[in-house]
């Protein structure tokens, strides 16, 4: 069976229910492992599809505006992003657009985006219409879903959809940071440096391919065998 | 701080980021503004230039003086660096000093042999040993080839890193290290040795390898931890100062929901802080990561039940501000560069580490806006001396520390108390055991005494002496015991014979005998003694007698010692003019006496001897003079009856009455056989038996004294 390891980052403004969304999903799957008394912001879960298993690492992020500048550290090497907004808050939806732009400019690898309108139980206070959201989702190539963390609606769908897309991604294109255990794909599973703007400026990892050509493969191999 | 410049506030124009050479790649400040390719080329050019000019000028020294100095501390690994150092050495004598400081191991070579080959760098065997040991513990199921592979890999890995550390920039080195990790992983996937290993095991293995390699490298100065050529150390200081400056930042500024009055809260904070502080102590990147993870878990718990990332980050920032961990930047950079990237990107550790990086980055770039406060106020706070701010939390934390210490002390005290309790219980048990043992022994003794009456004792000579003197009982009575062949029986025989005689004299004594305890036995003995003492003065001849008795005791002792009774030593030493009645006699003469006596009296049993001796003494005054010579051997005879007492003494020493000097300790030879065996069998051969017989003549003095003598060394000295 093919195993895909993926990192999924949850983005969105403060108070849109990112954590509740994740906790609701994870807590349902592994109620044993998540103690209700201790908060959490990092989760792992396995999603079994028909012919593969997706190991998801969910990174929750701080939504406060003042930490916005730290976001790149979180979504670096992420394979999927949940863009969560509050359907009762137009601002949260507007900030999603900012996130998407940032992702598009900073993340070179293809990324599975999911637009999630949370708090759909508050239909009466809706500020972002469904059509508007779905239109936008289509424009950025994201799946769109409305959920309610309170009533546990649509959350499974979001994760399942993401997992399926990740599986497709892992088999279709070469995404370095997406690690999959397929016997033939060992070379791909290693997160080789991604030529992204912010990394190039600071660590120069963009040069990695040049290095790999210089690095003598035989050297370490030989050393290890003797 | 790598992440620092990612801040939007620090965004730089792209053109500024391009390589200085003008190629399309981005440059890097750590590469002096070049891209890595150009920088490497530049470096190579420089190196070539250095080599060319190595004989003349220490170019590198001039170029980057601070680097050259630092390199001295760890350059023993690199040929290149050593060459460089030697140049500087020849040029500047002052550098010699540096050498001797930094390179103790190879200074000698340095001083004298300019053409010496570079010291072969050896990785301490300790690492290998440590790996072997841990491998055995952690990976019990894996074949030994895996262990070997891991060790070989670590070895080549360390060597390679050390080799490269001087010629590569940190980022190049980091890349190389990551390559090593990847190669090891690849190797694990392809090698047949690892065919059976699960992917989890493989991850553990890579962690294992990383841990051991990095733990060693971490401690080498300037190789991987705050390496030369980076500003890590300076940044560490800057960060530390910055945090100190920000000590006024409280939970309200960061909008985290912490209750400073809650003791549980401050305790959690305390735990988180201590974990953060411990990060610096951990050697490997994995260890550091796990510390960070633990710290963050505490922080998360600190935030309360429904904590999320929204709460975690502010609380973590707050914790870092309060902790001010040492060498924070160096540690973070070390982990980012040399931790297995795979793990750093993923997993809980990676997540929390990212959070920590965010926190550090936030602190670095903290402004009035990020705290939602007025610029003026912020400036005011920043101008405030660091010592003023944050006193509440500092107090709470120190309280926490104190509380924790108190808790530890309490735990220690409790442990001590438990120890004392167990000790007491054991002592009680011991006492109970002793009690029961005592009772048991007493019971047994009673039992034994009941079965075998102790009337043996009445048979002792002192009684007879007195009785003899009083009643002048004829020899016949005394000879009858001689007839009794078995020494073991006397208990039965003697009472019959003796008791009637003794009874009148010492009734109380016999009564005490019936009692069973040991104490009383000893008392009895003492009684005997006291009885004896009065007896000698009665006869006028007793005075010399007594002297001779004492002499006899001294002579007595050698006899049990030796199978050579006439050992010249024993006699010569012990014979003093006083001992022998005749002063003019030479010691040699006394020896002659012995011989004669032996022949005369052979054939008597030890037990039997006792009795005959007594009667003769009073009757033959001549014998008295001989007593001292013969008495020595008597104690043996009396031993049989006092065996139980005698057996307690393995050795005894005599005290010279005159000089009060204690003689050598004498060993008591317990001879059960002699006493038991019939006289006929051994006596002719026994040198002792004749002597004993002679002693028997002197019985009065000999037997009683001997009886008392042996058990209680007190007696013999009494004159």
TrEMBL record, chain A:
Report the superkingdom from the record.
Eukaryota
| Example of a GO MF term | GTPase activity
Keywords associated with the record: Nucleotide-binding
Asked if Cell division is a keyword of the record, the answer is no
Q: Which NCBIfam families match?
A: small_GTP (TIGR00231)
Protein family membership: Belongs to the small GTPase superfamily. Rab family.
The protein in question is named Ras-related protein Rab-31
Organism source for this protein?
A: Vanessa tameamea
Automatic annotation (TrEMBL), chain B:
Q: Gene name on record?
A: Rabex-5
One BP term from GO: vesicle-mediated transport
> Which named protein is this?
Rab5 GDP/GTP exchange factor isoform X1
Task: List where Basic and acidic residues composition bias occurs.
Answer: 60-69, 610-629
Which molecular function terms from Gene Ontology are attached? DNA binding; guanyl-nucleotide exchange factor activity; small GTPase binding; zinc ion binding
Keywords in alphabetical order: Metal-binding, Zinc, Zinc-finger
Residue intervals of the A20-type domain? 13-47
The segment(s) forming the VPS9 domain are 233-372
Q: Record keywords: Lipid biosynthesis included?
A: no
On the tree of life, the source organism's domain of life is Eukaryota
Pfam families tied to this protein: DUF5601, VPS9, zf-A20
Task: Give the SMART domains listed for this entry.
Answer: VPS9, ZnF_A20
Does the keyword Metal-binding belong to this entry?
yes
Residue ranges, annotated region (Disordered): 49-70, 603-641, 672-719
What GO cellular component term, any one, is given? Answer: cytosol
According to its UniProt entry, this protein's organism is: Vanessa tameamea (Kamehameha butterfly)
InterPro entries (alphabetical): DUF5601 (IPR041545), VPS9 (IPR003123), Vps9-like (IPR045046), VPS9_dom_sf (IPR037191), Znf_A20 (IPR002653)
């Amino acid at each position: 069976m093919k195993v895909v390891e993926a990192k999924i980052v949850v983005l969105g403004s403060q108070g849109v229910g990112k954590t509740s969304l994740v906790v609701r999903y994870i807590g349902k799957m592994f109620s044993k492992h998540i103690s209700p008394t201790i908060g959490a912001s990092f989760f792992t879960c396995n999603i079994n599809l028909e012919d593969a298993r997706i190991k998801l690492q969910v990174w929750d992020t701080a939504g406060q505006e003042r930490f916005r500048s730290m976001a790149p550290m979180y979504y670096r090497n992420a394979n999927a992003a949940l863009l969560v907004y509050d359907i009762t808050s137009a601002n949260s939806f507007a900030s999603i657009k900012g996130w998407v732009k940032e992702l598009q400019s900073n993340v070179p690898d293809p990324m599975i985006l999911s637009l999630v309108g949370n708090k759909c139980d508050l239909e009466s206070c809706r500020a972002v219409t469904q059509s508007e959201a779905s239109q936008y989702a289509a424009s950025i190539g994201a799946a769109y879903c409305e959920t309610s963390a309170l009533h546990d609606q649509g959350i499974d769908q979001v994760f399942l959809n993401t997992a399926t897309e990740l599986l497709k991604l892992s088999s279709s294109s070469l995404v370095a940071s997406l690690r999959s255990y397929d016997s033939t794909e060992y070379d791909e599973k290693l997160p080789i440096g991604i030529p992204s703007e912010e990394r190039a400026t600071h660590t120069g990892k963009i040069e990695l391919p040049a290095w790999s050509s210089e690095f003598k493969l035989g050297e370490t191999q030989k050393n290890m065998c003797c | 701080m790598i992440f620092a410049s990612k801040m939007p506030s620090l965004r730089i124009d792209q053109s500024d980021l391009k390589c200085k050479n003008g190629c399309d790649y981005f440059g890097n400040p750590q590469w002096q503004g070049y891209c890595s390719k150009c920088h490497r080329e530049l470096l190579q050019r420089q190196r070539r230039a250095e080599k060319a000019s190595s004989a003349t000028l220490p170019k590198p020294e001039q170029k980057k003086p601070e680097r050259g100095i630092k390199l001295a501390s760890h350059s023993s690994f690199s040929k290149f660096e050593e060459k460089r150092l030697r140049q500087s050495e020849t040029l500047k004598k002052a550098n010699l000093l540096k050498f001797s400081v930094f390179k103790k191991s190879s200074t000698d070579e340095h001083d004298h042999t300019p053409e010496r080959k570079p010291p072969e760098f050896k990785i301490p065997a300790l690492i290998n040993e440590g790996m072997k040991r841990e491998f055995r513990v952690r990976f019990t199921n894996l074949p030994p080839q895996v262990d070997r592979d891991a060790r070989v890999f670590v070895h080549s890995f360390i060597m390679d890193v050390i080799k490269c550390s001087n010629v590569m920039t940190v980022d190049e080195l980091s890349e190389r290290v990551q390559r090593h990790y990847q190669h090891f992983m690849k190797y694990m996937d392809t090698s047949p040795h690892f065919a059976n290993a699960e992917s989890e095991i493989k991850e553990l293995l890579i962690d294992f390898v990383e841990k051991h390699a990095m733990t060693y490298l971490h401690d080498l100065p300037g190789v991987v931890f705050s390496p030369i050529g980076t500003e890590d150390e300076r940044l560490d200081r800057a960060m530390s100062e910055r945090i100190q400056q920000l000590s006024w930042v409280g939970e309200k500024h960061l909008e985290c929901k912490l209750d400073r009055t809650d003791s549980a809260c401050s305790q959690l904070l305390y735990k988180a802080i201590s974990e953060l502080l411990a990060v610096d102590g951990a050697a490997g990147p994995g260890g550091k990561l796990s510390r960070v993870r633990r710290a963050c878990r505490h922080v998360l718990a600190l935030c309360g039940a429904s904590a999320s990332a929204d709460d975690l980050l502010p609380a973590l920032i707050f914790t870092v501000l309060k902790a001010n961990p040492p060498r924070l930047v160096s540690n973070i950079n070390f982990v980012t560069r040399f931790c297995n990237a795979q793990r750093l990107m993923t997993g809980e550790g990676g997540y929390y580490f990212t959070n920590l990086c965010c926190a550090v980055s936030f602190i670095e770039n903290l402004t009035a806006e990020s705290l939602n406060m007025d610029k003026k106020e912020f400036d005011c706070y920043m101008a405030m001396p660091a010592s003023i701010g944050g006193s509440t939390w500092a107090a709470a934390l120190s309280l926490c520390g104190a509380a924790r210490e108190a808790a530890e002390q309490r735990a220690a005290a409790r442990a001590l108390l438990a120890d004392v309790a167990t000790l007491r219980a054991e002592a009680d048990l011991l006492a109970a055991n002793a009690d029961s043992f005592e009772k048991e022994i007493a019971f047994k003794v009673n039992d034994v005494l009941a079965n075998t009456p102790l009337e043996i004792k009445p048979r002792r000579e002192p009684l007879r002496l007195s009785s003899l003197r009083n009643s002048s009982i004829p020899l016949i009575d005394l000879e009858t015991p001689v007839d009794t062949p078995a020494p073991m029986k006397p208990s039965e025989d003697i009472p019959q014979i003796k008791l009637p005689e003794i009874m009148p004299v010492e009734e109380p004594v016999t009564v005490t005998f019936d009692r069973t305890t040991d104490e009383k036995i000893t008392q009895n003995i003492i009684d005997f003694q006291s009885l004896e003492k009065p007896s000698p003065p009665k006869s006028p001849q007793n005075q010399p007698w007594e002297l001779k008795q004492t002499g006899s005791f001294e002579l007595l002792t050698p006899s049990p010692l030796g199978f050579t009774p006439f050992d010249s030593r024993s006699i010569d030493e012990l014979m003093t003019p006083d001992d022998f009645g005749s002063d003019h006699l030479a010691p040699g003469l006394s020896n002659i006496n012995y011989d004669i006596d032996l022949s005369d009296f052979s054939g008597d049993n030890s037990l039997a001897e006792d009795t005959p001796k007594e009667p003769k003494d009073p009757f033959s005054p001549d014998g008295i003079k001989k007593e001292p010579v013969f008495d020595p051997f008597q104690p043996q005879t009396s031993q049989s009856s006092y065996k139980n007492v005698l057996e307690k003494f393995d050795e005894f020493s005599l005290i010279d009455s005159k000089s009060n000097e204690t003689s050598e300790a004498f060993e008591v030879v317990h001879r059960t056989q002699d006493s038991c065996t019939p006289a006929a069998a051994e006596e002719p051969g026994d040198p002792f038996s004749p002597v004993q017989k002679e002693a028997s003549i002197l019985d009065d003095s000999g037997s009683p004294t001997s009886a008392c003598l042996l058990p209680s060394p007190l007696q013999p000295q009494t004159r």
